[in-house]
Amino acid sequence: MKIFCIGRNYAAHAAELGNKAPKDNPMVFMKPPTAILPNNKPFYHPDYSDDIHYETEMVVKIAKNGRHVAPGFAMDYVGGIGLGLDLTARDLQNELRQKGHPWEIAKGFDNSAPLGATFYAPEEFTDLNDIAFRMEKNGEEVQHGRSSNMIFNLTALICYVSRFFRLQKGDLLFTGTPAGVGPIVRGDELIGYLTTREGEQMMFQTRVK
Ligand code: MG
Question: What's the pLDDT at 40?
Fold first, then answer.
């Protein structure tokens, strides 16, 4: 199973970190499968970072194998929609970027991808390109987003990623974070929500220890 992640896919988030939003192509990176932290398991804050940030992201579960997916078929690859966190060791990431080094250790470390257990089928949404989600830290909303604000929509992401990487059933695609990212500390509780046809659903609940 592969975990694809998209960087800077919301203009307001790119701006809040002082980055330029990509114009031509999505910014793709990967996390290893060991990054997944199943829903409701606590996240133990590691000692190699003093500045781990939450990034709440809509996650697509890939429905079937394929490569070089054409735009007209891209949505057939959406097997389910979930919600997760792309935890990022911001201090390490900045250090690595300054050196021009790859940022895997800042993004792909163990348990850096807390993930809700539930994925909703595409039919559970009125419009896959306009899904609302949000996250509360300690009972206060810190992030909210809509997939309609993504710079590259699901079709564009699936087409682009599948040019380089063969998609396999069960792969995950973290679609990028909206603005409002911030640090986590021990004791924090992070709860993510996503809105389906039926209303708002609690998708994950992660405690930082
Ligand atoms: Mg992210």
Answer: 83
Could you tell me if 203 and 195 are in contact, meaning their C-beta atoms sit under 8 angstroms apart? no
Which residue type sits at 194?
L
Ion ligand 1 contact residues with beta carbon within 5 A: 55, 86, 177
Q: Rounded to 10 degrees, what is the CA torsion of 173, 175, 181, 186?
A: -20
pLDDT tens readout for residues 69-86: 999 999 999 999 999 999
Residue 132, classified by CB atoms within 10 Å of its CB into exposed (0-12), middle (13-18) or buried (19+), is middle
Chain centroid to Cα 35, Å, comes to 12
pLDDT of residue 21: 87
Pairing of strands 140-146, 172-174: unpaired
In this structure, the dihedral spanned by the alpha carbons of residues 110, 116, 121 and 127, taken in order and rounded to 10 degrees, is -100
Ligand 1 centroid, distance to 70 Cα (angstroms):
25
Compute the distance from residue 77 Cα to the ligand 1 centre, in Å.
21
For residue 186, the one-letter residue type is R
Distance (angstroms) between ligand 1 centre and the Cα of 132 equals 17
